[in-house]
Amino acid sequence: MAMMMTGRVLLVCALCVLWCGASDGASIGVSGKDHNNLNELFSSAAAKAELAKTVAAKATAAAAAAAKAKSAAEAAATKAKAAAAAAKEAEGAAKAKEAGGAAEAESELAKTAAAKAKSAAEAAAKAKSAAAAAESVAKTAAAATTEAKAAAAEAAAEAGGAAEAAEAANAAAEAEKKATASAEAAAKAKSAAAAAETAVAETKTATAEAAEAAAETAAKAAAEAATATEIAKAAAEKAAAAAAVEAEKAKTAAAAESEKEKAAEAEALRYTAVGEDKVKRKLHDQDNSAEHHSEEKRELLQEEGPERQEKEHQHQQHEHSAENGEESAKDKSALRTNATAITDDSDGSTAVSHATSPLLPLLLVACAAAAAVVAA
């Protein structure tokens, strides 16, 4: 783009230089009307160059705005996806934590109940062993009592004495008391064993119930976690769809801005091309006019000699005087310079240089405007 504009600027400058050179070689003056036309032409070219610069600046700003909108849309879509993923993970973690806490509590309860059941079973086993031992002791005591009674009877029968019989009776009574105590202890041991068995059965029932409740709670928590996962998944899909819609809108807006930018560039190129075409046509017309007047002047000078040349000078002077009556006060100095150049052929080149000197600022303005367009 910059090389194209630079080439056009160089072309305009080259045409200006060629036009000035052709005017110097022909040794003719520039009329006030042509000077005004050139002023209008270069002013129009400068205005169009400025308009092209403004259009290019607006196109650049529109492109930057479109790029920013696209970047903002992409950032919003990325943030929406990240937020949806984070929400999904957080919700799943919360549900899993809750389910894990409930299951852990139920597991602790089951472990405690199992430990209590084990302790009760051990106590029942110990009570059962104690009852068996007590029963064995009671049986031994009963046997001893029977043997003591028999011995006492035999001793009483053999001794026949009252004292020995009394001692044997006392011993039998003590043995009977011990047997009675052993029987009571055995009964209590049996009761304790029965209570221990009952406790073991209750503990097993409680353990089964706790395990069942834990399984039910875990299943419920798993179902809630699955439901929460589905909800989070649906929310994430919805957020992703919304982000995709926003991204598509941003892409459409960026495409529209790009189209506007291309249209603005095309418009700027069109204005520049139109201005350059007008300058080329005007310069070409000036070159043709200068060549035509130069050829006619040389033919007249060759055919009629000095007298014809003097008449031609006078005729041109009258024509310029008539044109000066219609021109504004601003162009009178240029017309007087042209008339002086026609009267004195020896100073023709100097007159042409004075007449063309006001065009230099216009050339500078045109080159500056073209350079500004290139810089934009």
UniProtKB/TrEMBL annotation:
The keyword Nucleotidyltransferase does not apply. Keywords: Coiled coil, Signal. The keyword Signal applies. Residues 275-334 have a biased composition (Basic and acidic residues). Residues 335-353 have a biased composition (Polar residues). Residues 156-183 form a coiled coil. It comes from the Eukaryota. Residues 271-353 are annotated as: Disordered. Residues 1-25 form the signal peptide. This is Mucin-associated surface protein (MASP). It comes from Trypanosoma cruzi.
